[in-house]
Design goal:
There is one protein chain. The protein is α/β, with parallel strands linked by helices. It contains 18 helices and 13 strands. It has a domain of 167 residues: Rossmann fold (3-Layer(aba) Sandwich). Keywords: Cobalt, Glycosidase, Hydrolase, Iron, Manganese, Metal-binding, NAD, Nickel. Belongs to the glycosyl hydrolase 4 family.
């Protein structure tokens, strides 16, 4: 049997070393021959490739071929899997996505609210171009596993513009939440945690979580109510220490998100919310908490980004690698396990973003929803859910239509539909604010967005 080639689009990402490690650790299950890093930023990708090469040769002792390229034909020719992790505009544009809305009193976040809509308009074109390039060069039975943000808008654009694409859109945030739950409840083996979930991407709820015979949903609700945060004990202790000493990590934006789970559960205790619902249900409090001069983009650039590239420089100068300088975790494991399930027809259960087609009976047939599915060689077999209560359906419909309108704005070059999308989004308080934020983001995205008339 011919061995497989896997391509990472966005090879210059700080997540790339960890993802490659996860892929290569599954070499046998993936029948792996070659890993390709593909990025339009050659300088950045070359630096990341230094660490990737070290992981392959020194840490894993692997003979898997590593190819590093900026050429689409070379990257995709005969590829079986394409892992897409694009960040169109880089952290420079993410910073604008976050800070510009804040200047108008709106949530500043990269995938939610006006920042997410801006990011979506930047990403639709490159994603459609990627699908066309992969279709041209890759194996006929290829799969694109897309976790490029904002996944909800990207998946809707793919559904509408390339309905026959062999693409599965996914997000690892629910997995990150499960990891936090496992840590909080002292569970080591997350592979035995099973859960049900419904929603849109970055906009959903866990309806059940079990571990063997244990009902973790009720346990974690009690834990959050007691600790007033969804973080494991060791994180909570470190947070207390940081606050006592005035350490900057005590006010990092991500802490507010995990604390907000408590507030949301106090109001709506039936289901455990995805942490991203903070931005929609606690808009006012989120804006008040955010620092308009130091947003999450700055935090990431000052930590994960800085650590990786300083680690590369140290390795090139001394030959020594600090493994803490690159990120490896459940993100890479999960996406690699998804590829294993597709290749080996395992029918393993994953959470995917997929066209509804009745999976949630009281949501539109063509809605791109996030629900569990069994994954085999033919793609997702979606698990049908019960009808969802009116409150949650109403929230989802408002968000869904905001996302649909921004995709239509892209396709039709429509300023009016963009304004409708912004006005409908729950993070924006009025049509006047929506117009002001939209106009400001148009100026900042002139080289990325289509012209809106």
């Amino acid at each position: 049997m011919k061995k497989n080639k896997i391509c990472l689009v966005g090879g210059g990402s700080t997540f790339t070393p960890g993802i490659v490690k996860s892929i290569v650790e599954r070499s046998e299950e993936l029948n792996l021959r070659e890993v390709v890093l593909y990025d339009i930023n050659e300088e950045r990708q070359k630096k990341v490739a230094v660490i990737v090469e070290w992981i392959l040769r020194e840490q894993l002792k692997s003979d898997v071929i590593l190819t590093v390229t900026t050429d689409a034909e070379e990257a995709f020719t005969d590829a079986k899997f394409i892992f897409a992790q694009m960040r169109v505009g880089g952290y420079k544009m993410r910073e604008k996505d976050e800070k510009t809305p804040l200047s108008f009193g709106c949530v500043g976040q990269e995938t939610c609210g006006p920042g997410g809509l801006a990011y979506g308009l930047r990403t639709i074109g490159p994603m459609i171009e990627l699908i066309d390039q992969v279709e041209k060069y890759a194996l006929e039975d290829h799969w694109i596993l897309n976790y490029s943000n904002p996944a909800a808008i990207v998946s809707e654009a793919c559904r509408k513009m390339r309905p026959n694409a062999r693409i599965i859109n996914v997000c690892d945030m629910p997995i990150a939440i499960i990891d936090m739950i496992a840590g909080s409840l002292n569970i080591a083996d997350t592979s035995e945690i099973k859960y049900d979930y419904f929603g849109l991407n970055h906009f959903g709820w866990f309806t059940s979580i079990t571990y063997r015979e244990r009902d973790l949903l009720e346990e974690i609700k009690h834990y959050v109510n007691e600790h007033k945060i969804l973080l494991p004990p060791q994180y909570i202790e470190r947070l207390k220490e940081n606050r006592a000493t005035g350490d900057r990590h005590a006010v990092s934006s991500w802490i507010h998100v995990w604390e907000s789970v408590y507030t949301m559960l106090q109001a709506f205790p039936d289901y455990l919310p995805n942490t991203y619902l903070t931005y929609y249900l606690l808009q006012k409090e989120t804006v008040e908490h955010q620092n308009p001069d130091l947003t999450r983009a700055n935090e990431v650039m000052n930590t994960r980004e800085k650590a990786l590239f300083e680690g590369v420089d140290k390795y090139l100068a001394t030959g020594e690698v600090d493994e803490a300088s690159f990120h490896a975790g459940s993100h890479g494991d999960w996406i690699s396990d998804l590829a294993v399930a597709l290749l080996n027809d395992t029918k393993s259960r994953f959470l995917v973003i997929t066209e509804n087609k009745g999976a949630i009976p009281n949501m539109p047939y063509d809605a791109m929803v996030e629900v569990p599915a069994y994954i085999g060689e033919n793609g997702p077999e979606v698990i049908t859910q019960e009808p969802i209560p009116l409150f949650y359906q109403g929230l989802m419909m408002q968000q869904l239509n905001s996302e649909k309108l921004i995709v239509e704005a892209y396709i039709e070059n429509s300023y009016e539909k963009a304004l409708q999308s912004f006005s409908l989004n729950k993070t924006i308080p009025s049509v006047n604010v929506a117009r002001s934020v939209l106009n400001a983001l148009i100026e900042e995205n002139k080289s990325y967005w289509p012209e809106l008339n």
